[in-house]
Specification:
3 helices, alpha+beta, single chain, globular
């Protein structure tokens, strides 16, 4: 039976946290998920997903821990994809654990062969107490103002459209001392 070894690296610019792990090819991606959680000492029980990726580590199709819907367009869950089936033609995955904290890891196949060890092989670095901050790049023009920017939402130009007369005689200033 073929075994695979992987380098699993925390997505963090400030620390160097890496685990080398091995797993049998007939195990599922869900088994790989559990091995990653155990190897990094993460708190078990959180939702997670693998994501297919390209050479630039861009996030592509999701492989969820739990089934997400039914039908031909629903992605296959981790429990239905074997490590051997996926990594025969692919070399890497992104792994996101705990969607509130977004622990993110790069999973890259290092080697495969019949006599490779399984489990945690090598550990470098200590996982930080909190997940590293994630910053998402906008798919739109980076110079365009965010729709939540106060300067964009409320500008002096708005004064041209509304004045006290627009609200009739019932409009008056509120005195906070009255309340």
């Amino acid at each position: 039976m073929e075994n695979f070894t992987f380098l699993v690296t925390l997505d963090d610019d400030k620390s160097n946290v890496i685990r080398e792990i091995g797993i049998e090819s007939n195990k599922t991606l869900e088994d790989l998920h559990h091995l990653i959680v155990q190897s990094f000492g993460l708190t078990p029980g959180e939702l997670a997903s693998f994501y297919r990726t390209n050479e630039k580590w861009e996030q592509l199709d999701e492989i969820p821990l739990v089934p997400l819907g039914e039908g031909e367009n629903a992605p296959l869950p981790m429990s239905e994809i074997s490590v051997g089936a996926y990594f025969t033609n692919n070399q890497r995955l992104l792994y996101v654990y705990d969607f509130l904290n977004l622990w993110t890891f790069y999973v890259e196949k290092k080697s495969q062969g019949p006599a490779l060890p399984v489990g945690l092989i090598h550990s470098i670095g200590v996982l930080p107490a909190e997940a590293p901050a994630r910053f998402f790049e906008s798919e739109t023009d980076p110079h365009r103002k965010n729709s939540f920017d106060d300067d964009y939402l409320f500008s002096d130009a708005d004064d041209e459209f509304f004045d006290e007369e627009d609200f009739g005689e019932g409009f008056h200033e509120i005195d906070p001392d009255e309340y």
